[in-house]
Amino acid sequence: MEADLVVKGFLIIKGYIDARDEQGNAMFGTLLALASRREHKYVSVMFSHEEPSKSMSWNDLLLLLREKESERDRNPMITHHEEELLKFLRRGTVLNNVAKNHNTKQAEQSISRFCLEDLQLKAVSFVDYSEASDTDIAIFDIETERAVSSHDDEADRQEPQPDSLENEEQEEEKPDEAKEWEEIAVRCDPILAPVGGVAMNELNIGDVVMVRLPEDSVFFKLLMRNVKGFDGIVNAGITGILQNEMGTATISLSLAEGITGVTKMSGKVRIKTAQTRKGQRKRTSAGDLPVNYVFSAAFVIIVIAALAVLYYIFQ
What we know:
By secondary structure, the protein is an alpha+beta fold. The protein is built from nine helices and twelve strands. Helices cover 41% and strands 26% of the residues.
């Protein structure tokens, strides 16, 4: 009886997003999920410039999302939107609340608000659901396993396999080339300083600013345990600034080797810096060296853990 109740608690949730970007161009989003009030068994999203049919069955939508995964050289901005929306849905309780209350209005409002505030897309969202049977759940389980296996196979194909010593020498001649799988991105919050801070539009690459790590980050927890007096604030050098027409900028930061911080700011906001405008570094908290050391140690731990998981899956 308990197993039947668990199965009945899962809903197949479909969602559609009608959006406009800053230039007024149409963009359409779709989402498909299998969720209960406590967990997500499957979540996938897709953005496209082509409008999908809202009457599409969830089986057809599942195939559409699968085809998306096989496409190469996809638009980087669209891929970014998909990744951010996926994180929002997986980390939050939007889908769980639909399964709990069978109410889609709150989910529609939350998704539209996220698109506006985080993706700079003016959006109207539509969410629908249906009860999931045992067979439906089995289909989603198989699809999840297939997606994981496909992703690992793609990563293996993309890994460089030098055919000769000459290729190896060419790799050695380019030690500074960044490899995508070596980078870890960490969301950071800027430390605002209305008085004495530096406005976003005055920042330059190379400036050192002060940001706060999210408390749910593995780095925050490691630093709390290993650096005495750590309060979540770190100094980071700016490595890139991407500003849109609305005045909001996405700033990339160097936290440590292989670890990049990402923060967003408005042009009117002032952020606290760790150096003067003349380039002279201000007094910073003790422990900058341990912080950098723990960041690097955490990076190594994450890589080892990922390799261990892959070994366990394919042994």
